[in-house]
Amino acid sequence: MVADVQEEIVAAVNELRAKYTYVFTTGGIGPTHDDITADAIAAAFGVGISEHPDALKDMAERYAKMGTEFTAPRRRMARVPHGASLVANPVSGAPGFQTGNVFTLAGVPSIARAMLEDIGPRLETGAVVHKVTVRGKGLREGDLAEGLGAIAKEAPGVTIGSYPWYGAIDDHGVALVARSADAAALGAAQAKLEALTRSLGVEPEIQS
Predict the structure, then answer these.
(1) pLDDT in tens for each of the 208 residues of the chain?
(2) Running DSSP on this structure, what letter comes out for residue 76?
(3) Phi first, then psi: what are they for 188, rounded to 5°?
(4) Backbone angles phi, psi at 5, to 5 degrees
């Protein structure tokens, strides 16, 4: 989380957009004084900001249909950095926007989720990462630590994590999660995780 301080938002956005393929921000694009994300994104990219004609038109029509006055604070939500493309908001109408590899979304979870529907097709995808979970009911991480470390060292291209769960006295254990874009490597790692679980007297439960 970044505070509502423009310099801090600019610094965070510029650091992250240079490091990662995509950056998603949520919040700060509403009608109130503390909604400064749009201005901060414009500053981060070194561009101006003004009302987007398409956003202004759509919002004006929406408020007219609702019989609600399209006030100056509401018009603020039509402001986007120059050169940005709009991200549709089917829930409340006020759009998000994409500037370079940075997507700026509303902070309300239901609206952010709806905006992601418009963003999905824009994203360039890479190799699909597959996941498998090997659950060992009744096990403890201390039981698995040594064997798990050895498996991880012998599984290049596979990331392996250990996650204990505590449901009740008779419902606890460890979930071993393996992820990889290499299906063969993932299968080999899964077999070793199952063998490790069985060596400790527990029949593994598999989730994929």
Answers:
(1) 999 999 999 999 999 999 999 999 999 999 999 999 999 999 999 999 999 999 999 999 999 999 999 999 999 999 999 999 999 999 999 999 999 999 999 999 999 999 999 999 999 888 889 999 999 999 999 999 999 999 999 999 999 999 999 988 788 999 999 999 999 999 999 999 999 999 999 999 998 7
(2) G
(3) -65, -40
(4) -130, 115
Q: What is the pTM of this model?
A: 0.72
Neighbouring C-beta atoms of residue 37, cutoff 10 Å: 24
Q: Which residues of 180-189 are buried (b: 16+ CB within 10 A; e: fewer)?
A: bebeebbebb
Helix, strand, or coil (residue 53): helix
Residue 110, Cβ neighbours under 10 Å: how many? 10
Question: Cβ distance 50 to 86 under 8 Å?
Answer: no
Length of the chain: 208
DSSP string, 123-143: SPP-SPPEEEEEEEET--HHH
Contact 2, 37 (CB under 8 A): no
